[in-house]
Amino acid sequence: MKKIALLTALLVALCSTALAYVGNSTSHKFHYEGCRAEQRIRADHRVHFDTREEAIDAGYTPCGICRP
């Protein structure tokens, strides 16, 4: 599991120059775009953030898988 999380974070970092963050309005967790947990968020529960600080200021906590 740790290897998958590390690979996910690495792929996200390599594939995008401007990282995007997606929050789940139900769990109040936020993820890197592309995280396997992010991919399971329902469309009506998605909240988009431009920065990590924006997500934290909105009361969201980082995902334990992708560790944004």
Structure characterization notes:
With 68 residues, this protein is of the alpha+beta class. The protein has one domain: DNA Methylphosphotriester Repair Domain (3-Layer(aba) Sandwich). It is built from two helices and four strands, in the order αβββαβ. A four-stranded mixed sheet has the order 3-1-2-4. The radius of gyration is 11 Å and the shape is globular. The two termini are 16 Å apart. The mean pLDDT is 87.
* Separation of the first and last Cα atoms: 16 Å
Number of domains: 1
Largest sheet: 4 strands, mixed
Percent in helix: 25-40%
What spatial order of strands do you see in the largest sheet? 3-1-2-4
List how many beta strands DSSP finds.
Answer: 4
User: If classified by CATH, what would the architecture be?
Assistant: 3-Layer(aba) Sandwich
Average pLDDT number: 87
- Global morphology: globular
Number of helix segments?
Answer: 2
Strand content: 15-25%
| Global Rg | 11 Å
Low-confidence stretches: none
The CATH class turns out to be Alpha Beta
Order of helices and strands: HEEEHE
Class from secondary-structure proportions: alpha+beta
CATH topology: DNA Methylphosphotriester Repair Domain
Give the helices and strands, then pairings.
Elements: H1 2-15, E1 21-24, E2 29-32, E3 46-49, H2 52-57, E4 61-62
Parallel strand pairs: 2-4
Antiparallel strand pairs: 1-2, 1-3
Task: Give the key terms.
alpha+beta; DNA Methylphosphotriester Repair Domain; four-stranded mixed beta sheet
